[in-house]
């Protein structure tokens, strides 16, 4: 697991620990998301609070996780985006695909 | 390509860690230090070294167990050497048999250790380059190009592009110009989310679908970029081979007769539009989501009217990634500002600019930029 996890209410929080979420960790992240969904988690909050930069490989893994979640009646939301990453989500319309929350606590209450 | 020299040192003895780290740093290596196997794993999750140099005798998890754990993990292919004082022949053999590339004794003089590491990393690099050459040869033989060799000639327009693959590997960006006739030309710029070969391979899948969708729609008399994009999205969404891989796409159709461009985008960056009449630029943002993400990609179609001297820039995200002293960041505005002083110059001036030179030297992803300028109808193309 390259993410650390904790339960928060009805949600499972997956903390991305890499400051630079890039190609090197993208495949492992994708596998982590898939296994969390396979474990039956219905609301996964991906917490970006420790992340400074994301590249498109990592976003690809996140989006691929979202597709897998939807196929399994689960939901992935994101929290803790810094200004640049939030800007990037908006630029490429990922804000339409993901619910975005300021904090993990807000995200965990979203379902 | 320079030899990368990032080493993860693992030893439970802080003194050894510091001394060896200092000696290797002095020789130009970049050392990360871990006091235990568990600490090493924490580092590996965040940063990938070119080589792991580990002690055998460590409490909790010894060097062999650590190696075995790595073999069973996603870090199995990181080269591993033992650096230990254990001289028992049987144990040494056991260590080597754990797919370790070498077993070095701690009393080996530092210059010898450095040479061994250097030689090993050079061999890895040479093999890597050979593989790269073979793959490139195969790609050329199959006539696989995700970047066009020719720029189309469109009456009343200047078209050009600039592209740099990430670390000179073919990558996930793809560009195509599809000339239907003297009047209609399609411009395609996409970015498969990923880098290097994995993304490159999929870029052909996407390009094939895009070319087919454009040709089929045009044959049916349908020139709407929105409906073409919907067709592409639907195929990608349902195809298990590419549906797990996401790609952005900017699809433009130049109508040379009307001097108009129709534009639809899928999760792409806003176009930068330069209005020569007011000497200002603005972003044009489409509404569509990444290809294959949702069955309904929420695509729109924007008609862009270009007058003489107006310019349009289509780009992928590599060009808005910047590396500063405080780390990497993604910032569209920095790019928009950098290009501002080139609005009154030919595109070649921007191609030769310090901004793009810096991108070539320090870029962190594939970079692509397509340039479209409206000329007066009776002018010759000057690119």
From TrEMBL, chain A:
Q: Which residues form the STAS domain?
A: 19-111
Q: Which CDD domains match?
A: STAS_anti-anti-sigma_factors
InterPro entries in alphabetical order? STAS_dom, STAS_dom_sf
Q: Which Gene3D superfamilies match?
A: STAS domain (3.30.750.24)
Record-level Gene Ontology MF annotations = anti-sigma factor antagonist activity
What is a single Pfam family found in this protein's UniProt entry? Answer: STAS
Q: Which domain of life is it from?
A: Bacteria
| Stated name of the protein | STAS domain-containing protein
What organism is listed for this UniProt entry?
Mucilaginibacter glaciei
Automatic annotation (TrEMBL), chain B:
Q: Which domain of life is it from?
A: Bacteria
- Key words of the record: Hydrolase, Phosphoprotein
Which InterPro entries does this entry report, sorted A to Z?
Bact_Sigma-Reg, CheY-like_superfamily, PPM-type-like_dom_sf, PPM-type_phosphatase-like_dom, Sig_transdc_resp-reg_receiver
- Species of the source: Mucilaginibacter glaciei
Q: What biological-process terms (Gene Ontology) are attached?
A: phosphorelay signal transduction system
Could you identify this protein by its name?
A: Fused response regulator/phosphatase
A family per Pfam: SpoIIE
UniProt domain Response regulatory: residue ranges: 6-121
In terms of Gene3D superfamilies, this protein maps to: 3.40.50.2300, PPM-type phosphatase domain (3.60.40.10)
Q: Which residues carry this modification: 4-aspartylphosphate?
A: 55
PANTHER family the UniProt entry points to: STAGE II SPORULATION PROTEIN E, STAGE II SPORULATION PROTEIN E-RELATED
Provide any one GO MF term from the record.
phosphatase activity
């Amino acid at each position: 697991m390259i993410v650390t996890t904790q339960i928060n209410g009805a949600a499972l929080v997956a903390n991305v620990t890499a400051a630079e979420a890039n190609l090197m960790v993208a495949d492992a992240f994708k596998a982590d998301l898939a296994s969390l969904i396979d474990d039956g988690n219905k609301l996964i909050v991906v917490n970006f609070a420790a992340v400074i930069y994301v590249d498109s490989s990592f976003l690809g893994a996140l989006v691929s996780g979202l597709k897998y979640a939807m196929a399994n009646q689960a939901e992935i939301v994101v929290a803790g985006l810094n200004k640049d990453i939030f800007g990037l989500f908006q630029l490429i319309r990922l804000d339409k695909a993901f619910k975005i929350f300021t904090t993990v606590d807000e995200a965990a209450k979203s379902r | 390509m320079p030899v990368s020299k990032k080493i993860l040192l693992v030893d439970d003895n802080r003194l050894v860690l510091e001394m060896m780290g200092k000696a290797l740093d002095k020789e130009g290596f970049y050392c990360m230090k871990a006091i235990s196997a568990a600490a090493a794993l924490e580092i590996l999750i965040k940063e990938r070294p070119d080589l792991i140099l580990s002690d055998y005798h460590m409490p909790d998890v010894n060097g062999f167990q650590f190696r075995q754990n790595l073999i069973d993990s996603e870090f199995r292919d990181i080269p591993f050497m033992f650096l230990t004082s254990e001289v028992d022949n049987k144990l040494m053999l056991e260590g080597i048999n754990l797919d370790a590339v070498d077993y070095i004794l701690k009393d080996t003089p530092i210059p010898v250790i450095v040479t061994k590491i250097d030689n090993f990393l050079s061999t890895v690099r040479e093999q890597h380059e050979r593989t790269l050459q073979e793959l490139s040869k195969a790609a050329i033989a199959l006539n696989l190009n995700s970047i066009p060799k020719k720029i189309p000639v469109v009456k009343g327009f200047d078209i050009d592009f600039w592209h740099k693959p990430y670390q000179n590997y073919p990558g996930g960006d793809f560009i195509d110009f599809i000339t239907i006739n003297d009047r209609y030309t399609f411009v395609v710029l996409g970015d498969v989310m990923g880098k290097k070969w994995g993304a490159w391979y999929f870029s052909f899948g996407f390009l094939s679908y895009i070319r087919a969708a454009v040709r089929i729609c045009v044959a049916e008399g349908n020139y709407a970029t929105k409906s073409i994009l919907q067709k592409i999205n639907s195929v990608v969404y349902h195809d298990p081979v590419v549906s797990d891989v996401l790609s952005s796409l900017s699809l433009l159709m130049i109508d040379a007769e009307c001097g108009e461009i129709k534009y639809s985008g899928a999760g792409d960056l806003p176009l930068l539009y330069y209005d020569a009449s007011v000497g200002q630029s603005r972003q044009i943002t489409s509404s569509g989501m990444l290809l294959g993400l949702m069955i309904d990609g929420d695509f729109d179609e924007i008609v862009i009217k270009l007058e003489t001297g107006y310019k349009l820039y289509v780009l992928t995200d590599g060009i808005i990634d910047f590396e500063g002293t405080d780390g990497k960041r993604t910032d569209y505005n920095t790019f928009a500002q950098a290009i501002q002083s080139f609005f009154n110059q030919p595109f070649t001036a921007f191609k030769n600019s310090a901004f793009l030179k810096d991108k070539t030297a320090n870029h962190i992803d594939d970079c692509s930029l397509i340039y479209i300028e409206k000329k007066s109808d009776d002018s010759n193309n000057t690119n």
